[in-house]
Amino acid sequence: MQLPLGTEPVGDRYRPGSKRGPEGPWDALVIGSGMGGMTAPAMLGRPGFRVLVLEQHFGPGGFTQTFRRGPYTWDIGVDAVGEVTTDTPTGRLLDDLTQARLAWASLGAMYDRFQFPDDVHLDFPDSKDGFESLLSIEPRDRRAIHSRLRV
Question: What pTM, to 2 d.p., does this model score?
Fold first, then answer.
């Protein structure tokens, strides 16, 4: 994978922020270096395609970046990623992209809650079995809930 255009050589690497970059020709150009803009060149680079990533910001990453204020570091992107097992397309893609070097940590048995009027709430569990709580809200929909979750 090539570094973004707008980089400057520093030894055998390139520094973000300049108007110079490595020479072409390129097999593919990718505009933007967010999650998709980094996924495409990672996949295209494996079989040997030369890919140029163009980014207008001073660094790559899109909403996967962090920023600092004093001693604190903040992320500006995704807070939680679900369904990342090898049983799901997302999980398989991320496993392939990272060559199985990424380990996921649970956010807890119930990682989020939607609160509705009349004290109705829906908890979001970290497993399919945890969605049985939906049945307490609408028990008549047992068949549809089980069908959707493939329980």
Answer: 0.55
